[in-house]
Write a structure and sequence with these properties.
By secondary structure, the protein is of the alpha/beta class. The chain folds into two domains: 5-125 and 239-266, Rossmann fold; 131-236, Dihydrodipicolinate Reductase, domain 2 (2-Layer Sandwich). Helices cover 34% and strands 24% of the residues. The chain is built from nine helices and twelve strands. The protein has helices spanning 15-25, 45-48, 62-69, 80-92, 106-119, 131-143, 166-178, 242-251, 263-266, and strands at 5-10, 30-36, 58-59, 73-76, 96-99, 123-125, 149-156, 199-201, 204-210, 216-224, 227-235, 258-260. The strands form two sheets. The chain has a seven-stranded parallel beta sheet with strand order 3-2-1-4-5-6-12, sandwiched between helices. The chain has a five-stranded mixed beta sheet with strand order 8-9-7-10-11, with helices on one face. The radius of gyration is 20 Å and the shape is elongated. Bound molecules: NADPH dihydro-nicotinamide-adenine-dinucleotide phosphate (NDP) and ligand LZUJQKHR. The ligand O=C(O)C1=N[C@H](C(=O)O)C[C@H](O)C1 binds at residues 102, 127-128, 156, 160, 165-167, 216.
Length: 267
């Protein structure tokens, strides 16, 4: 059997981080070598994730942990405020980041692109790792050729920090690349309550719903003459993201520079 890929999980106590720790420990091609979260509690990462102990303890400092554990890949599910710093630290150590954390701007992506070039290390930024969500984005892009009038509704749990979701932004970008430019809605429409029409992206409206009980869901709604088309994806549990995360970890070291979107790595 070929050598296992050495992986560090950043944000290992979080909702996604715990799921990733489990997925890595259950995959025979991967080895968990580090688990970072700010409290650095020194608890066993597997126990925190609900499995029997694996011997990897939670630590608090990313640089120190990279130096001590020598990972090849860092999986990052942290928070929008810390992700840029984390990516830079990983790249400086020639560790490839596989990043699920959302909230990155176009300018951030450009900066990461430059870092990957100067440190000669690849990096994946993937706003969504669920294969069904990638297909939803692809189908939405295709549909927008025939239905240019579109609104995006994204639904998430109420602990989410960023709005709109990374997936909604990526979907809007994909549609914008494909459809003819149009102005949607009535030219004289007026918002009686500010924000009622949602966020605006290149003439498209994005609506962000936050409620307990939700995980991650999105509808792309198209309207045409006498008809509507709805393309919907639901992540019912966070396990939905794990096959994509594992594929990404296995493939990122063979990629070059910044890869934006898991579709670019696997389709
Ligand atoms: N791409 C995808 O497919 C998906 C992306 N996401 C994205 O992943 C991110 C995480 O989501 P989720 O797991 O729900 O969030 P959580 O809040 O549950 O987890 C984030 C974790 O990161 C920790 N953290 C905060 N700052 C740092 C830091 N500097 N270094 C290391 N760890 C840190 C937090 O610790 P503490 O609580 O102590 O601050 C927390 O344990 C979000 O941006 C979300 O949008 C989520 C699902 C799928
Ligand atoms: O915060 C989440 O939960 C999710 N975030 C990602 C996003 O912003 O698109 C992916 C998924 O929707 C879950």
């Amino acid at each position: 059997m070929s050598k296992k890929i050495r992986v560090l999980v950043n944000g290992a106590r979080g909702r996604m981080g715990k799921e990733v720790v489990k997925a890595i420990l259950n995959d025979p091609t991967l080895e968990l070598v580090g688990a970072v979260d700010p409290a650095g509690t020194e608890e066993d990462a597997a126990v925190v994730a609900g499995l029997p102990a694996c011997g990897v303890l939670l630590t608090g400092d990313l640089s120190d942990t990279i130096e001590a554990s020598n990972p090849e890949v860092m999986v990052d599910f942290t928070i929008p405020q810390s992700v840029m710093g984390n990516i830079r630290i990983a790249l400086q150590h020639k560790v490839s980041p596989v990043v699920g954390t959302t909230g990155l701007s176009e300018q951030d992506l450009q900066e990461i692109r430059e870092w990957t070039a100067s440190y000669e290390t690849s990096c994946l930024i993937a706003p969504n790792f669920a294969i069904g969500a990638l297909l939803m984005m692809r189908f939405a892009r295709e549909a927008s050729r025939f239905f240019p009038h579109v609104e995006i509704m994204e639904y998430h749990h109420d602990q989410k920090l960023d709005a709109p979701s990374g997936t909604a932004i990526k979907t809007a970008e994909a549609i914008q690349e494909e459809r003819q430019k149009i102005n949607q809605g009535h030219p004289d429409e007026e918002e009686i309550i500010a924000g009622s029409r949602g966020g605006e992206f290149e003439g498209m409206r994005i609506h962000s719903i936050r409620l307990p009980g939700l995980v991650a869901h999105q509808e792309v709604l198209f309207g045409g003459l006498g008809q509507t088309l709805t393309i919907r994806h639901d992540s019912i549990t966070r396990e939905s993201f794990m096959p994509g995360v594992i594929e990404a970890v296995q493939r990122i070291r063979s990629a070059k520079g910044l890869v934006y979107g898991l579709d670019k790595l696997i389709f």
